Amino acid sequence: MHRLTTAAGRQRLRRIGVVLAVAAALAGFFWALPEPDDERLAPPAPGFVVRDVRLFDGEHVVERATVVVRAGRITEAGPGVAVPPDLQVVEGRGRTLMPGLIDAHVHTWGDALAETLNFGVTTVLDMFSDPGPARVLRRSREALAPRAHADLFSAGWLATAPRGHGAQFGLPVPTLGTPGEASAWVDARLAEGSDYIKIVYEPRDANGLGAPFPSLDRATMAALIAATQARGRLAMVHVSRLVAAHEALEAGADGLVHVHADRVADAALVQLARERGAFVTPTLAVIAGFDPTPPATAGEARENQRFAADPAVRPYLTPDQRRGLENSAGTKLVMFRLDTALASVRALHEGGVDILAGSDAPNPGTAHGASLHHELELLVRAGLTPIEALRAATSVPARRFDLADRGRIAPGQRADLLLVAGDPTTDIRATRAIERIWKNGAGVERRRYPEAP
Ligand SMILES: [Zn+2]
C-alpha cells in the first residue's frame, strides 16, 4: 500500500524508499545469477506417508486420513488408504495436514522466498516487483526438485501513472498516461514474463481529496483491463477507496488486491463484485499496520506487535522481520481503519464474493510468510469460518489463478504440505504450530533466529 501523507509520514516513506531501492539493487545483483540447473534438475525426494491425520484437503476436512507422497507428488489421499511398506511413516495423530499455503499479495526481493517457506507458505503471487527474478524462477516452479524457497508467480512491473504509486521507490517502473498506450504496455509486460497484470487506481474525489500520488485516469485503467483480458490474462486493481473499488469493478477487474478501507462496502459494491465474479484480496495485515487508532490503553501493543510476540511465530522471524512487524506505529490516515476493513470483508464474504488471503509483505507491519498466518486470524475476525479462511489461502487462490497443481491435497498434486499440531479448522491460530513443512515432497528444515539476550 505504501500510502502516507503527513510530513512525518512522507519522511518515513522516503526512508523506506531508500531501503527498498538498496534492497532491490542487491536483489538484482543476486538474482542476476542464473539458478543453478543442478537444483532445478535434481531428482525429487523418494517419498513418505502421513498416517492417521486430520486432513484439510483445500476444501473439506476428513477427520482421519492417510496421505502418500512419491517423487514430489501426492499419489493417494483419503480415509481408506493403506500404508505402503517401502515408505517412511510420519505419525499424524493429533495433527492436521493441509496444503502448503498460498499468499496472494506480496512483493519479492532478497531472501523473501526463503523467509516465506520458513512459515509453510509454499507459493506466492507477487503484485509488483522487478520482473528479472520471476523470469529465472519461472522454470524452477514447474520442477519437482527439492528446494529451499517458495514458488513465485508475478505481475512484474505494475501499471501506474508517471510519478504514481509504485513509481516512488527508485525502480525503473515503465509508466503510462493514456488509454491508447494500454495495449503496448500490456504486451511489453507479457513479453517480460508477467503472469498477470496489476493496475494502480487511486483517483482523487470531486473535492480533490485522495491519494498523494498522481493516478491513471478511469479510461486508462479500463483500457488496461480490456487489453489484459483480451490476451487471456487476469487484471487486478489496487484500490484504497470505495469509489475506486466501484469503478474498477465496473471496468471489469478480475480482482481487487486490497479491500478499500475508507468506508464500509455498500450493498451496490457487494452486488457488483458478485455479479462480475470478481475476487477481493483484503490484505488486512497491512491495513492493521497502517491503522491510526492508538491502543485502548497506553503502552498496550498494537495488533501487529501482538502478532510478532506470539511464541509460535517469534523464534522463526529474522531480526529484520521482527523489526518489520514492530514498525507498525500506524499513520495519520483515517482511511486505514482495520474495523472498517473488517466490516467490508464481512459484507463481501456474506454476499458470496471470493476472498483471497494476502499479506502485502514486506510492507511496514508485515513479514514474509509469517503475516499470512496473521491474515488468516484477521479473516476469521471478519466473519469467515476457519475452514473458509484456510480455503482463502489454498484452493480459492489456486482456482482463481489457474494453478492446477497446488492448493489442494489430491492425487497428482505437487506435494507442498504443512503439518501442524492441533486443529486449525476450529482454531485458526493453530496454523502457526508448524511441525513439518514439505516443498515438492522434500522436508524443509525450519530456521530459528535466536534473539540477543
Ligand atoms: Zn502491495
Topology, pairings included?
Layout: H1 7-31, H2 37-41, E1 47-56, E2 61-70, E3 73-78, E4 88-91, E5 95-99, E6 101-106, H3 112-117, E7 121-126, H4 131-141, E8 151-154, H5 182-192, E9 197-200, H6 218-230, E10 235-238, H7 242-250, E11 255-256, H8 267-276, E12 279-280, H9 284-290, H10 303-308, H11 319-326, H12 338-350, E13 354-355, H13 370-381, H14 386-392, H15 395-400, E14 417-421, E15 434-439, E16 442-443
Parallel strand pairs: 1-4, 1-5, 6-7, 7-8, 9-10, 10-11, 11-12, 12-13
Antiparallel strand pairs: 1-2, 2-3, 5-14, 14-15, 15-16
Helix pairs in contact: 5-6, 7-8, 13-14
Bound molecules: zinc ion.
Uncertain runs with pLDDT below 50, 5 residues or more? Answer: 1-34
Q: What class would the helix/strand composition place it in?
A: alpha/beta
CATH architecture of the largest domain: Alpha-Beta Barrel
Radius of gyration: 21 Å
**How far from one another are the termini?**
34 Å
What does this structure look like?
It is a single chain. The chain is an alpha/beta fold and 453 residues long. The chain has two domains: 3-32; 99-415, Alpha-Beta Barrel (TIM Barrel), CATH 3.20.20. The protein contains 15 helices and 16 strands. Strands 1, 2, 3, 4, 5, 14, 15 and 16 form an eight-stranded mixed β-sheet that branches. Strands 9-10-11-12-13 form a five-stranded parallel β-sheet, covered by helices on one side. Helix 8 (267-276) links the parallel strand 11 and strand 12. Helix 7 runs parallel beside helix 8. The protein is globular, with a radius of gyration of 21 Å. Mean pLDDT is 89; it is low at 1-34. The site of zinc ion has 4 residues, from loops. Zinc ion binds at residues 105, 107, 127, 360.
